[in-house]
Specification:
- The structure is a homodimer.
- Chain A is of the alpha/beta class.
- The first copy, chain A, is built from eight helices and five strands, in the order βαβααβααβααβα.
- In chain A, α1 runs parallel beside α8 and α3 packs antiparallel against α4.
- The interface between A and B is medium-sized, with 20 and 21 residues.
Chain lengths: ~210, ~210
């Protein structure tokens, strides 16, 4: 049995991750693979509790370091209980945010040391990286305008400068890993974004060769 | 203002930590210092929540690594919000378990890598170590016999071999840090243990010189 592919979707607020997620799922099914769709933080009972705790806590009440430790605790559990078993069973895993988000939000956004985050990622991921990451990219003000109507969580209450740091961090990650991270222009109409996501996954499916 | 002293109390199950804790408190008051008594995991809202998650989860359901990450997340918050501010204000902090317990329980007991725990401790403690640690030591079977009447949590359900590893790990830590860690024979009658704890704190008080 070939192991499944590990695909992550990343991006800041208001970039249309949910809609792209369903496009990715459709594209994987069109390739003939079973999918497991999950999210971070979350995906396990502990992960969902941590999500609730972090997103529900007042802005700035947790240090960047505490947030990072909680994210990696949730991630270690998620990898053990959901992601690795699904991949080993040949399923394709689609995860709404993963470690790139921790580097962007807790690192660039909130100031946790990149070296510390790298230590944690190395330990927790033990060599497992996403095979493909779709980065939904849009100027910070475009994303923020799109979420202006809804109630804002822990991170969504941050200002424009915070989301500009997040965007820059994501673009820097993409620049450093061009084979893994594909950038989609999320300021385009939602249907174009979906189509681009499907195209990238189809192309990836043709060349995916698990070790 | 001199910073306060940081005193931790360590030991496995059934060694009489609660009773020694009150003896330590009395001894510090006799020296004329204000005390803050706290515990790990715990001591902050997040810490108490993590305590509940870990001690309330079925035995073995969380990996050693996940437990360690949660313990250090709780510890980072506890240090920021409770321990460092109290010490800076000149108070003496008495903490029921600290990092030694993570090395003993998650490390020796459950198998988390000592190198990983050291990385986390270095990052989270940023050079702050307890000034004095009282290690309540008793053979594992003595401690377990003392708790045999009560309902057992997550760790208390483990077998004798687990608690022997905990005890050995604590004794190894003490051997490596003899100036900081003072061993008390916890198989003695409770009044003798209390008196010994008071004597050690009084002696420590005479020589404590904060940097």
């Amino acid at each position: 049995l070939r192991r499944g592919a590990f695909i992550t979707i990343e991006g800041s607020e208001g970039v249309g991750k949910s809609s792209s997620l369903s496009a990715v799922e459709d594209a994987i099914r069109a390739l003939g693979w079973e999918t497991v769709v999950t999210r971070e933080p979350g995906g396990t009972p502990l992960g969902e509790r941590i999500r609730e705790w972090v997103l529900g806590s007042p802005r700035g009440s947790l240090s960047a370091e505490v947030e990072a430790l909680l994210m990696f605790a949730a991630r270690a559990e998620h990898l053990d209980q959901v992601i690795r078993p699904a991949l080993a069973a040949g399923r394709w895993v689609v995860c709404d945010r993963f470690s790139d988000a921790t580097f962007a939000y807790q690192g660039a956004g909130r100031g946790a040391s990149a070296q510390f985050l790298t230590e944690l990622a190395t330990r927790v991921q033990r060599g497992l990286e996403p095979d493909l990451t779709l980065l939904l990219d849009a100027p910070a003000d475009v994303g923020l305008a799109r979420i202006s109507h809804r109630e804002h969580d822990h991170f969504e209450q941050e200002g424009l400068a915070f989301f500009e740091r997040i965007r820059d961090a994501y673009l820097a990650i993409a620049a450093g890993a061009p084979a893994r991270v594909k950038i989609i222009d999320a300021s385009l109409p939602i249907e174009d974004v979906r189509r681009e996501a499907e195209r990238i996954v189809a192309e990836f499916g043709d060349r995916f060769d698990p070790q």
